[in-house]
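Justification of computing resources. Each target in the renewal requires a structure prediction run like the one illustrated here; the chain below, 328 residues long, is used simply to show the kind of job we budget for.
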Amino acid sequence: MRRRDFIRLVGGGAASAWPLVARAQQPGMPVIGFLSSRSPHDSAYLLAAYKKGLAEDGHVEGRNVTIEYRWALGRYEQLPAMAADLVRRRVTVITSAGGEPAAFAAKAATSTIPIVFTIGGDPVKEKLVASLNRPDGNATGVTLLTNLLEPKRFSVLRDLVPGVSLVAVLLDPKFPGSERALHDVEAAARAVGVTIKAFRATSDSEIDAAFAGIAAAKPGALAVTADPFFDTRREKLVGFAAHYALPTIYQFREYALAGGLISYGIDIADGYRQAGVYTGRVLKGAKPAELPILQETKFLLVINMKTAHALGFNISSNLLSLADEVIE
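Resulting structure tokens:
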């Protein structure tokens, strides 16, 4: 398949899973506190990418660095206590993963321990840093830009279903920026005469209820907004979309690999590797205030033709020609 690589300011990722219980720290070894909104299961390849980045700077878990893991499993309300626990344990650096909720929790827990984050939005607007070039505080990291891509994903969805008049949008109101994402999609839809109907879910039972509502509304397509909680439930979301034969777009390639019809977004593993590189640099003495924010600009359009055939859905030759990857 053909890949389009846009100008990139950052580097990338891969992954391996890790148990919920952290390893015991070996004497004299620096400790990374890895705080994630997601789960070890759905983050397996991302964690491998992160470790690859660490290794590029000479840091290998168990050999010369220890990692304490904290996974919120999509339950954002647990993150502040997890971050506070890492601070009490006096970790050397905190890497926050899984978007803004983990970054906010880490930032609120300490103003002295270095923080390397991965988020989906603008860290300056979110007040995580003072500026992109010089963060001027104890935090730096990578912005994956995925929260800002909702209008583009809507455009791709329209190319997928050209005559669609009603599009359902699934969002999580507990995720920072979700209402702004909805606003952006609604603005893009108004410009082309498409109606948007929003459905909100913050738990598994609410996902069930949302899809029942979506089925009753009979939209021509569905957009699942960027949200780490949804990432931890991607098999469930993909399963519902297949059950209702609903053309659906998602933010990451991992959804298409799980059977989702189409995804458009950044190469998230790429961003995690770079977060690992930055964490390694901090371990070597670099100050977060002097490490510019990295912006991921490598985008992937992935189409799952197996799913398209199963749904009896035709993908235009034009859209297929734009795809970076087609899963046969």
